[in-house]
Design brief:
With about 475 residues, this protein is an alpha/beta fold. The chain contains 16 helices and 13 strands. A hairpin with a 4-residue loop joins strand 5 and strand 6. Helix 2 crosses helix 4, helix 5 crosses helix 7 and helix 11 crosses helix 13.
Length: about 475
């Protein structure tokens, strides 16, 4: 199926969506920046820090705070966890669900996409946690479904490593149980609150789900009455063919990454095609591309800021993260060793992508180049320029790739987000491509403007007891 990028490119007012991409830890994508003057990343244990960040995102009319998470640590580099601890490379890390209630109380419209892995909690109790958050936030919560990729997480859960595609078989049944609990247990009018007859909920309208599958047996009813969205907005970030299939079948917001927009575009096209193959609309899911923007009043000021950041970037931290991402211990190699001397498919792919970024096919890229490239922005493209230049580039990327918006990573927290909100958002708003006010209702309604509940084409809808 041909992509519809061209159709959108001809529309001057395609709306751009922003999520703030964060993690409940010190160091996220840009290594070493917790040391930068004014950075508050090390305040991650302070609730005031998160409340202020949520209010900042809402001032910037971000759709959601997308909170990544890991139940594990990066221990490939050097064969142990020492470098991750030393450089605060996504360790220590706290539970992000503990933050949402307080942030929701301090905001009115901002959504919260919470990451949680399917292997770390039984779906029966997880269904209750998400329904509780959906109630407390008045329908502003989403769930980023992950199957996990760090062996350290499975080891510490007492589990064996699971083949990649088998993880998604497990996730298929996990989310099926959740749909049954969220959509198929309580009818819409099960809660009657009849004080005169001492009836809060009508037992005839609350049903056991009777699920008996390969991985789970859940015979009973959901513990929670229907929340505003019932099913939270489903986020997903699978990049493999099996992951894309899972996303196309379930997700309403899909997270994509890539070193350049040109390399992201085919992935977006594949996702759009897969949505249609799953019987859904081509645009039934919002697609967000990870991106880091460094901006200021002028281009020169933005580049000055970038070079200032370089002084604090951690080479060891960048290699710690990247070793974990690709499963190859880069501490075994000299920093100036060419990548094409290293026997690793992931390394060769990295080298090829770097050449595509620079257009320099003759240069032999080294391990040091990875550290420099990944220390600022991590796994995302980095856009540097004035507010107008960054806005131009974001619109170009949307037209080129057919993404709906961006998961904005930060170099400094909250500085990067403050700069985007001060320099880029007003320009996009003036151009009519970024919201000036939130739509009413739940996160689902704010993203799609089509009601608070699942579309009939969504697989979860088939389990709905009250249609």
């Amino acid at each position: 199926m041909a992509t519809q990028v061209g159709d959108f490119a001809r529309q001057s007012a395609r709306q751009i969506h922003f999520n703030g991409f964060v993690k409940d830890c010190v160091g996220h994508q840009s290594s070493g920046m917790w040391r930068y003057p004014g950075d508050r990343s090390a305040d991650y244990t302070k609730l005031d820090h998160w409340i202020e960040l949520a209010r900042l995102f809402e001032r910037g009319r971000f759709d959601a705070m997308f909170i990544a998470d890991l139940v594990g640590y990066f221990d490939v580099y050097g064969g142990n966890v020492d470098s991750a601890l030393r450089t605060a490379s996504q360790l220590p890390i706290n539970d992000p669900t503990t933050l949402v209630s307080a942030m929701a109380a301090a905001t009115h419209d901002l959504g919260f996409g919470v990451t949680a892995g399917v292997f770390y909690e039984h779906p029966y109790t997880f269904a209750r946690r998400m329904s509780s958050l959906d109630h407390i936030t008045n329908g502003r919560v989403g769930w980023n479904v992950v199957t996990g990729y760090l062996p350290s997480a499975l080891r510490n859960m007492g589990q064996q490593d699971i083949p990649h595609d088998k993880r998604y078989d497990y996730a298929d049944e996990y989310i099926e149980v959740l749909y049954k609990l969220w959509e198929g247990s309580w009818e819409d009018d099960a809660v009657v609150r009849d004080k005169a007859h001492d009836v809060y909920a009508d037992p005839a309208k609350v049903h056991p789900i009777n699920h008996h599958g390969e991985f789970f047996d859940v015979p009973g009813i959901h513990l929670c009455e229907p929340s505003p969205q019932r099913t939270p907005v489903i986020f997903q970030a699978g990049g493999s063919p099996r992951g894309i299939r899972f996303a196309a079948e379930n997700a309403e917001a899909i997270f994509v990454t890539g070193p350049t927009p040109e390399l992201v575009a085919p992935t977006v096209r594949q996702i759009r095609d897969s949505l249609e193959a799953a019987g859904r609309g081509r645009y039934d899911a919002r697609i967000f591309m990870m991106l880091t923007a460094i901006t200021a009043n002028t281009e020169q000021e933005a580049w000055d800021k970038y070079h200032d950041y370089e002084r604090y970037a951690s080479t060891e931290g960048a290699l710690t993260l990247y070793s974990g991402w690709i499963g190859t211990d880069l501490s075994k190699y000299d920093l100036d060793q060419p990548l094409d001397d290293i026997e690793s498919n992931a390394i060769q792919s990295t080298a090829a992508n770097m050449q595509k970024v620079t257009g320099d096919d003759g240069r032999r890229w080294t391990v040091r180049d990875i550290a420099i490239r990944r220390a600022i922005g991590g796994n995302s493209p980095v856009v540097v320029g004035s507010g107008e230049q960054v806005a131009d580039e974001l619109q170009r990327i949307v037209e080129l790739t057919d993404v709906d918006g961006f998961n904005l990573a930060y170099v400094t927290n909250p500085g990067t987000f403050e700069d985007i909100i001060d320099y880029v958002v007003p320009i996009l708003q003036e151009r009519g491509v970024y919201q000036t006010e939130y739509a009413p209702g739940t996160l689902r309604n704010k993203l799609f403007g089509a009601g608070d509940h699942l579309k009939p084409t969504h697989p979860g809808y088939r389990y709905k007891v009250s249609k």
